[in-house]
Structures are given as C-alpha cells and as structure tokens.
Specification:
It contains 4 helices and 5 strands. With about 90 residues, it is α+β, with helices and mostly antiparallel strands. Strands 1-3-2 form a 3-stranded antiparallel β-sheet. It has a two-stranded antiparallel sheet with strand order 4-5.
C-alpha cells in the first residue's frame, strides 16, 4: 500500500467518523435528495450540510449533481444494508 493510498483511506475514514455524514448517506440511499432537504431533515445548518456533502463527495461516497435551477442533488455511491454493511453501487 502506497503512502497515497493510506492518505486516501484516512480521508475516507475521517469522512465516515461523523454520525451526521453517515446519516446523509443513509438518507440519500432511500432516494436522491437536495442539500436543503438534507439540512432540514437532519436539523443542520445549510452551510454545514454543504461542507459535509462536499467531504463525502471528495472521497467518492456520494455524487453531487447540479441541476439547471442551481439545485444540487445528492446521489449515494454506496448503500448501507440492514446489517450496517457497505455495498458499493
């Protein structure tokens, strides 16, 4: 494993070290959501939600899709099953 691989893994684990960021993945696994929806459901400040989704996107756990009306839709790149196991989609 290279030093770069270790840094990537460390960044991914850091992204998953926060319960709210895991909840974002879980919410988006149910259906695509936008940042406003996520912030309301999780009772988070909009800017914090943008920061969290950016972090998750950076490590390829979600993708952000910008719509014409400037809405950013979040789509998960992984799913969590009922046992808490990660499934790559």
């Amino acid at each position: 494993m290279t030093k770069l691989d270790i840094v990537k893994l460390k960044t991914m684990f850091s992204a998953l070290a926060n319960e709210k960021r895991i909840k974002i993945i879980e919410l988006c696994s149910q259906k695509e959501r936008n940042v406003t929806e996520i912030s309301k459901i999780l009772n988070l400040n909009y800017s914090i939600t943008v920061e969290y989704t950016s972090m998750l996107s950076k490590v390829n756990l979600i993708s952000k899709i910008r719509k014409n009306d400037r809405t950013v839709t979040i789509r998960p790149l992984i799913r969590l099953n009922n046992n808490g196991e990660v499934i790559k989609i």
